[in-house]
Amino acid sequence: METSDDPQIKLLLQPWASVCFSEPTRLMVKAWFSDSSYILLLSDLSNMWYESANTEVIQQRSKELNKRLTAPVASILKCLHNLLSPLLEGKENSSVSFSCQLSSSSLILHVKSELLGLPFYWDFHCGTAPLEMMSRHLLRPLMAMSLGLHDQVQELASLLLQKDAEIEDYRENGATLSLERLKTEPFKEESFLHTFETKIGQIGMSLQSMKPSP
User: Fold this and answer.
1) Is residue 11 classed exposed, middle or buried when 0-12, 13-18 and 19+ CB atoms within 10 A define those classes?
2) How many domains would you assign to the chain?
3) 113 with 151, same domain?
4) Which of 107, 178, 186, 201 could pair covalently with 102 via S-S, beta carbons 3.0-4.6 A apart?
5) For 110-156, how does the pLDDT look when each residue is reduced to its tens digit (9 = 90+)?
6) Whole-structure pTM over 0.70, yes or no?
7) Taking every annotated instance into account, which residue ranges of this chain make up the domain XLF-like coiled-coil region (predicted)?
8) Shared-domain flag, residues 121 and 49
């Protein structure tokens, strides 16, 4: 839970998490909660949905879904934050159940748990995220990470080649290993880069399984 003058910046700084709310659909999720509002962002890497809810929306929805429960907005937001946080951290949360209805234009995430000893229900009503939001939260960060990773791989390959040259110089000048098990094969840059690119392709293919069946 945070207070912030710019919720969009706070959301941008939140990490993505891969979450399975209901089989077989797995979604990328990030969320930001304050004492008076929340923003939820979800994507299957083909579509993106989001909801931004303020105090008025939260109060009205709570009255509609939880007629026996009267709780301050801050308590509702704290409850929602506590229910979602374990999933975003890759942990199980047996105190809550989720179900998901989605299409290309909308997504409803149903939540069922308890608050103040009473049944607690919540629906996140998410609409299609604008292209600018998809670019800001997904495309641009992924491109930046991809370029950064490519540079690091090139630097690593260059460093390993230099290390091989250094080791060879030691050998030519009579240096020997005290332990034979420490001996390594010369680094093969072309083979290394080919293996790296193959693994990246395999990861890309595995991400296709996140897409919901038509």
Assistant:
1) buried
2) 2
3) no
4) 107
5) 999 999 889 999 999 999 999 999 999 988 888 888 888 888 988 99
6) yes
7) 130-178
8) yes
